[in-house]
Amino acid sequence: MLLELDNISLAYGRIQALHGISLTVGQGEIVALIGANGAGKSTTMRAISGLRPVSQGSIKFDGKDITRLRADLRVVRGVSQSPEGRGIFPGMSVRENLEMGAYTRRVRAEIDEDLERVFGLFPRMKEREKQSGGTLSGGEQQMLAVGRALMSRPKLLLLDEPSMGLAPMLIQQIFDIIVEINQQGTTILLVEQNAQQALSRAHRAYVLETGRIVKAGTGAELLHDPAVKDAYLGVA
Amino acid sequence: MNFSGLINEFGPLTVAGLAQGAIIALFALGYTLVYGVLRLINFAHSEVFLVGTYACLIAWGWFGLDQNSAAPDLGAMLGYMALGLVVAIVASGLVALLVELVAYRPLRRRNAPPLAFLITAIGASLAISETVGVLTHRVQRGVPPIIQAKTVITIGNTHITNLQILIVVLALVMMFVLDRFINGSRLGRGIRAVAQSPDSAALMGVNKSRVISLVFLLGGLMAGIAAVMYDLKIGVTKYDAGFLLGIDAFTAAVLGGIGNLRGALVGGLLLGVLQNYAAGLFGSSWLHGAAFVLLVLILMFRPTGLLGESLGRARA
Would you give the end-to-end CA distance of chain B in angstroms? Predict the structure, then answer.
């Protein structure tokens, strides 16, 4: 397994956000995490990337325990996150934002190669190269956040709501790109409100409810699960 | 009000104000750098400057120089300048790092509220200035005449000295170097990333603690240079020198837009010049008061300061 969460709990002050989450992501998979607002999806992502310390449980990445490792050092190990709300650097140009994604890397030729790859995936970013991040539209910021997360050449890409705020046509497009990134060899853990899209693209998925995992299965299984359909797919 | 005095002395007041303002600007950078990254007013920065004013005096003392020494020849003068600058920069830089490490880092580890940082800042400032006060018996110390101020340019009744030119040029050069570092280097980009979005910066692999140490160090280096220029210009230093000029420097940072590097330069120069105009208009005892009235007015109409952007938003 590339990533293993074992019985993770996490609290914001007195509010317990996660109650003993266990999940795994295998090499080469796309795994989706679905659930309602406030179920703990983004919190789980923050625990994995190290932005929030866990109060209990362990996180293993690539065979090594990273439970207490600082967030910036997890990037060096190969974990990269496109955060909730995108987290674009508003005062930096699109290119500088992408270069920030490669902050831990030193080989210029490789960084340039990855810039070209991101520009290939998101031609819009090439057009906007010199524009400052704060002036981009929501959809463009989303593409920038995903592209920036790729710039560290991650083994595991964490995507938090990549379809948030996008027009329907763009949603289709961003999921196509996610599958393409995965086929190029990057393992992906995906948090989504758009359960329909997420489940139809993911190999496996987990359903989160109030900080607990209540269901797990392949994407197809959950897509056809009556309870999941009822709660998350908006069809009875 | 003495309008004719202001008009007659306009040139000399402007020149004196620019030299004073250049020192204030270098000093102000430390406030603005730390604020840009931490949203913290580091009141102990005034003592980072204070230590610099003494450090170069101590270094010159190693060579037997005191206020009664004869002025050195050109070669020795350059040597003493270099020595004084290096020692003051190192001393101020170390004090800045130490303040961060001892006073602020433990609070950050505990997620202390902003008020705790403010109290600690004031405490650290008092602790250092009082220590210097006790060690120096609260007596001012004279500066050896490393550079003899003499007029090199005269335009009408305006005499510009070699020292004034040195101070302004040095401040501009340091500003330029710092600006290039922040906007053009990888580490500088890391600083801007933490200033704009600390969480995103961590997700890019930026070590936040290292960036914080770096901004304290940079602010300290600039304060060290300001301290040497201050010594040479004023001719004496005292345990409360940092506090008094620190208020000016903090004002300049706010005036220019705190968090904005170029704002510190603009704010410093403007404050220096306006203080001197106010002194010409109302008499020198109004030098500080009038500047503050202006600060209040500017902030009423432009609360974010003149340039009004943060370090984070400053574009390359």
Answer: 45
Q: Are B287 and B275 in contact (CB under 8 A)?
A: yes
| Position B94 in a domain | yes
| Residues belonging to chain A | 236
User: pLDDT, tens digit, for every residue of A166-206?
Assistant: 888 889 999 999 999 999 999 999 999 899 999 999 999 99
**Type of residue numbered B269:** L
State the Cα torsion B114-B120-B122-B126 to the nearest 10°: 180
What range does the domain containing B95 cover?
30-244
Distance from C-alpha of B205 to C-alpha of B38, rounded to nearest angstrom: 18
Q: Nearest CA of chain B to the CA of A90: how many Å?
A: 7
- Chain position carrying tokens 């995490």: A33
The answer, for B205 touching chain A at a CB cutoff of 8 Å, is yes
Considering only the beta carbons, identify the residue of A73, A103, A132 that sits closest to B204: A103
Helix (H) or strand (E) holding A216: strand A212-218
Measured in angstroms, the CA of A197 and the nearest CA of chain B are apart by 26
Q: Structurally, how many domains does chain B consist of?
A: 1
Quick check: is B306 in a domain? no
Q: Contacts of residue B202 in chain A, CB cutoff 8 Å?
A: 50-51, 70-72
Q: State the complex-level ipTM.
A: 0.94
Token pair of A179, please? 């599958």
Has residue B17 been placed in a domain? no
Question: B114-137 b/e with 16+ CB inside 10 Å = b?
Answer: eeebeebbeebbeebbeebbeeee
What is the spatial distance between Cα B174 and Cα B26, in angstroms, rounded to a whole number? 8
Q: Which domains does chain A have, with CATH numbers?
A: 3-87+156-232 (3.40.50.300)
Burial of A11 (0-12, 13-18, 19+ CB in 10 A): middle
CB contact under 8 A, B315 and A91: yes
| Size of the A and B interface in Cβ pairs below 8 Å | 80
Q: What is the pLDDT of residues B44-62, one digit of tens each?
A: 999 999 999 999 999 999 9
Is B53 domain-assigned? yes
* Amino acid identity, position B40: L
Instruction: Spell out which residues of chain A touch residue B192, defining contact as CB-CB under 8 Å.
Output: 89, 91-92
The answer to whether A51 faces chain B, any CB pair under 8 Å, is yes
Pairing of strands A64-65, A79-82: unpaired
